[in-house]
């Protein structure tokens, strides 16, 4: 089901009850970009610590916008022995709530936009019809502002902006507005004596409205209800209504209800995330770290500095997560699934020994055809992710005694995968552990190497050719981590010395002038300041 | 005429000849945002110097994207006594040219996006079908890269990336790719002896293709043409063709032409700006400083640090500019036109003493109806801007002896408005002078005032109430410029002393504890560190 600002209010109940009745949920997000950093290899180094990776993603990815959110709810029907699914595809956009609300800026990355465009993404649905949202701070702030304004109006005090040295006296009316304000006073005085009930003042500027509020508050403390009204053309004018106490209360009550509704509308899509969070259901995603970070960042709070704090916030928002990319990369699936991208995983779990689950789309929902590709629409990706989870979970059931064909989201056999989020391209730490300390693999076989910027991976292979297979993790043009295959600590010292020797020999030859044959055409002017290469073990 | 990537190539000639035949051009841009700075009042202070204003716009506005460019050409038809117009509305997007081209990031401001959405802006035309572009550096760099690659291939040397210590020898083939490369060698050896002419290798990764190029270059230096081909599914594979010298040359020539065409496609929309620039025609815009800055920034070069350098670059790109907002704000129009926004200006120049010009839309172009509003579509705004220019210019003609009903874009009477760009919200410097030094008005009646953050404009009026009318230019929460109406230097000293006295008295009373009645309810905990207010004349 496509959900935009137009049908969001009508759909919210459907969403909430789908979440409530579900056995588990699958989610996916589409973003306006992935990374605004210098280059991917520096951003996702194979030897990042979880802290470093979190800090990089927070710094370089959170200024993009999560603008499409896919949610697919899965409910197992025992009788039919099949899952009933309800897929939703939400378009999200931070439309400013009012003139004083924060004017959010976000980055677009042209490659990401171009990619989504090539997949048929509808940008108008985001930018013209996206559902607004507020994070928790913004929501609290708006509610407090509204509360405060109400209290002050009840006490006959102006809005907070009037608390200033001159607020007690009459409003200071600049010379050029005096005629205007005097005309207003005249009209209101006439209203109080004539038989009319309502006075519509002419549209005017915000500053003039402020002067009117101040003046009327000071001159006529009782018997009037003053309110700003917007015309269809978005012009704002002030309406003054003659009221007795009872009507005044009734009108204030109406205004309060209207404000509450407007506030709820402004909270918008965040209410879906609140519902998911409140349900405590298992939430499945594929390679979902960025999805989780963006979701918390946009709909809950700015991400904390510290990884440990992030883990705690995440566990509050999503008490139970499962990452299908991690699952597919872990035993017993690791050996069976060579490519863990969502598209490939989906293909593989359709083949033996996996079994495609029986799935039925609930009535009134768009039915996806997995044969007809629609990848990279968030709702569809969420759906596929859920299918992959079911197939893998059910496969685990085949090892039970007696074997089970259906494994629920609450089953013990999937528990080992809970709350571990896949870490992309880290050699020796497969996942971020949300509910405990992260793995701390030994890295004393890793060397930090610097070299001239003309060097390629093959030069590093050559430099270390005496020491067996190596793995190179580039940091930038002139440095990389080199992991040796031997991990025996004692040998390492020798290796470093040997490597240094190689470097030294090369340097010597360079100085002696026979660089041509040894350095393979590396011209003298290309030997940068980074020469000679240095080799240092990681601390 | 709507121009997107789809019809750009077919339209370019029409655009160029429209520019060539025109008497003058009108332009307008739509952006993904206006300012990413803290707040508008701080960004456009009424007492900015031109240097400060330029620096602020450069810092806070250039990361947005100019994504719609309107151009309307105006050609006067003497016989018909009317203008023939050709309006174009270009959608522009920095689609990455290839995998190695820069992946541009740009900011979107939600209020701007929301505003355009409310005007019916079609974001899909930008993001899915926008015309790509390159600035001059990028173009030169791409052409050089292509040249270099060609030279190296002609000399039998690999691409620049192969110049590294190990480049002369055979490629270093990592263990896991050795089988793959050996199979390729086998196939190529077979090709050289069998009757086939062409060998299509299987699709493979970029790294594998690099290994293949290196290996084939080293092993088979003659008789082969090797090229990367892309399938419809965007998979890349290598094609090896058996060739004699003549065919090899022919194929290389074809490849060169293909590359040239691809390069021209990548330069894309910048070619329109080049054509406008080369024509030297008068270019008219409304409040056009940001349009000019964005145009130069996106399609020519990053903006220079220094305002003087910016003026010089601008005069190279647009040798003759005219800003209708400045024109409308200057004598004799200043007295006649109360609101110089484009929408209001357009209404006013339809009324006496102005005359609406006779205008005809050229055949094959969309005809705009000014009665039916389409404001904020760049092509339409450019058209309206041109109409306003004509009406105002013709009005100036009525003062000539004998009066002239038609004033051309080359007429002496419009010359005073050339190359002066309107400066928004600067009190005493109406325009940026592109061809000379800027105005340097005296500002010794201006005071720099700091105060507690609860203060409002009205408090400042009160503070200076003894000294006649003042003008307040806010800097931030706790500071502002206050311009006094008297400009007599000798009096100023007294005024400052008097203002300081007021401040001192207030402070004294605060200390004595009778703040309640004097400070009008300013609670003690709200008196911030900025108290007491200080008053300093501008240097």
Automatic annotation (TrEMBL), chains A, B:
Main location: cytoplasm
InterPro entries (UniProt xref): CAF1_poly(A)_ribonucleases (IPR051181), Nucleotide-bd_a/b_plait_sf (IPR012677), PARN_R3H (IPR034042), PolyA-riboNase_RNA-binding (IPR014789), R3H_dom (IPR001374), R3H_dom_sf (IPR036867), RBD_domain_sf (IPR035979), RNase_CAF1 (IPR006941)
Occurrences of domain R3H (ranges): 178-244
Pfam families associated with the record: CAF1, RNA_bind
EC number(s) recorded for this UniProt protein: 3.1.13.4
Cell compartments where the protein resides: Cytoplasm; Nucleus
Entries under CDD domains matching the protein: R3H_PARN, RRM_PARN
Catalytic reaction annotation: Exonucleolytic cleavage of poly(A) to 5'-AMP
Keywords carried by this UniProt record: Cytoplasm, Exonuclease, Hydrolase, Metal-binding, Nuclease, Nucleus, RNA-binding
Family of the protein in this entry: Belongs to the CAF1 family.
Protein name: Poly(A)-specific ribonuclease PARN
């Amino acid at each position: 089901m496509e959900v935009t600002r137009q049908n969001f209010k009508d759909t919210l109940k459907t969403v909430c009850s789908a979440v409530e009745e579900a056995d588990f949920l699958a989610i996916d997000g589409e973003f306006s970009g992935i990374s605004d950093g210098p280059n991917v290899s520096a951003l996702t180094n194979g030897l990042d610590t979880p802290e470093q990776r979190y800090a990089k993603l927070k710094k370089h990815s959170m200024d993009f916008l999560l603008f499409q959110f896919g949610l697919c709810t899965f409910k197992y029907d025992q009788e039919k022995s099949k899952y009933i699914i309800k897929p939703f595809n939400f378009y999200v956009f931070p439309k400013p709530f009012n003139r004083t609300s924060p004017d959010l800026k976000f980055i677009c990355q042209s490659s990401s936009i171009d990619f989504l465009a090539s997949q048929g993404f509808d940008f108008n649905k985001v930018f013209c019809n996206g559902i607004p949202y507020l994070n928790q701070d913004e929501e609290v702030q708006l509610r407090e502002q509204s509360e405060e304004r109400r209290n002050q109006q009840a006490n006959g005090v102006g809005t907070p902006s009037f608390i200033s040295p001159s607020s007690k006296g009459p409003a200071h009316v600049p010379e050029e507005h005096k005629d205007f304000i005097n005309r207003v006073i005249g009209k209101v005085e006439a209203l109080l004596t004539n038989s009319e009930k309502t006075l519509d003042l002419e549209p005017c500027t915000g500053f003039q409205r402020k002067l009117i509020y101040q003046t009327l508050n000071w001159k006529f403390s009782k018997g009037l209800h003053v309110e700003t009204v917007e015309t269809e053309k978005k012009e704002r004018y002030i309406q003054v209504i003659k009221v007795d106490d009872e009507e005044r209360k009734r009108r204030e009550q109406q205004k309060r209800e209207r404000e509450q509704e407007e506030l709820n509308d402004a909270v918008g899509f965040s209410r879906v995330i609140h519902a998911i969070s409140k349900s405590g259901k298992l939430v499945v995603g594929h390679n979902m770290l960025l999805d989780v970070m963006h979701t918390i960042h946009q709909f809950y709070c700015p991400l904390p500095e510290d990884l440990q704090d992030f883990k705690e916030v995440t566990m509050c928002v999503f008490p139970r997560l499962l990452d299908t990319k991690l699952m597919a990369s872990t035993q017993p699936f690791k050996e069976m699934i060579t490519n863990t991208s969502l598209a490939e995983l989906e293909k593989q779990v359709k083949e033996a020994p996996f079994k495609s689950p029986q799935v039925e789309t609930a009535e009134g929902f768009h039915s996806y055809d997995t044969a007809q590709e629609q990848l990279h629409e968030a709702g569809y990706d969420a759906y596929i992710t859920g299918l992959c989870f079911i197939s893998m979970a059910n496969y685990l059931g085949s090892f039970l005694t007696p074997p089970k064909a259906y494994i629920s989201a609450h089953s013990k056999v999937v528990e080992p995968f809970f709350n571990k989020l896949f870490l992309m391209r880290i050699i020796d730490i497969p996942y971020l552990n949300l509910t405990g300390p992260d793995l701390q693999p030994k890295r004393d076989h890793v060397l930090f190497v610097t070299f001239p910027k003309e060097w390629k991976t093959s030069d590093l292979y050559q430099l270390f050719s005496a020491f067996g297979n190596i793995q190179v993790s580039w940091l930038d043009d002139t440095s990389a981590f080199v992991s040796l295959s031997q991990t025996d600590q004692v040998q390492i010292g020798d290796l470093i010395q040997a490597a240094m020797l190689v470097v030294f020999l090369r340097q010597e030859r360079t100085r002696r002038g026979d660089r041509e044959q040894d350095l393979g055409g590396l011209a003298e002017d290309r030997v940068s300041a980074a020469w000679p290469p240095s080799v240092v073990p990681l601390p």
